[in-house]
Amino acid sequence: MPRIPSRLLALGLLVTGAAVLPASSAQAAGPCSGVARCHVVAHADVDGDGTPDAVGLARSGKDGAAHGTATLRVQLGSRVVRATKPTEYWYGPLWQGAADVDGRRGAELFFGRTQGAHAELFQSLTLRAGRLVTLRAPGRGYQGLWYVDSSVMYVGGWLRTTSDAPGVVRFRTAYRNDPPNDSDFEGVVKTFRWTRDGWVRTAIRRFPHASEDRVSRWTGFHVKGLQRF
Ligand SMILES: [Ca+2]
C-alpha cells in the first residue's frame, strides 16, 4: 500500500470536518458542482478584486458538431455567474485562456466558437455589473468574435505586448501578394484602444511587401494568458 503524504491526510481530515457544513456550500463545491461535462479550466481574477476565481466550462454537443454550446461558469464568492454561447464545428478543447485586453479590472475569458478549414473564431466574455457579457473584438470582424487564421494565402492574429498601455491590442493580417510577387505578403496592423465608447482604432500601419517569415509570426494570439491557437 503506498504511503499517503501527511499533507493529504490532513486534507482528508479537513474534508471529513467539512461534512458538518451546509452541503450546498457552492464556494466549497466549485463552479462545476453538479453540472454535467463541466471542468474547471482556470483560476483567473474575473471580478478584479485581486483574488483568483475558479472558471468552469461545460459543453454540450459532440466534438466537431455543427451545433453545440459552451457554458462558462465563474465562481464569485458563494454565487456562480454563467453565460452560454453556441459553438459550430469546433474540434478539440474549447478553452483558450484568460487575459486582460480591455484594460478594465478583471480578466476576459476566451473560448472557441467556430472553426473553419484553417480559421478559428473565439468568443470573449467579461464581467460587467455582475453579469458575463460579450467583449466584442475590435474592428469590423464577424459577430464580434476574435479571428485568427494561418493559411497559404492569409494570416491573422492578435498582439498585446507587455509595454502596451492598458486596453491596447493590435490586429495583424496579411494577404499573399499576387504573382509575380507571390513570395511576400501585403500586411496591415491596426492598433485599437478600449474607451468608454468601446474600441477605437488609434493607428494603422501597412506593409506592402512583408516577408512570409515575418507574417508567419503574426498568426494566432500573442497575448499574455492566451494560447496561440
Ligand atoms: Ca476575483
UniProtKB/TrEMBL annotation:
The keyword Signal applies. Keywords: Signal. InterPro entries: Integrin_alpha_N. Residues 1-28 form the signal peptide. This is Uncharacterized protein. It comes from Nocardioides marmoribigeumensis.
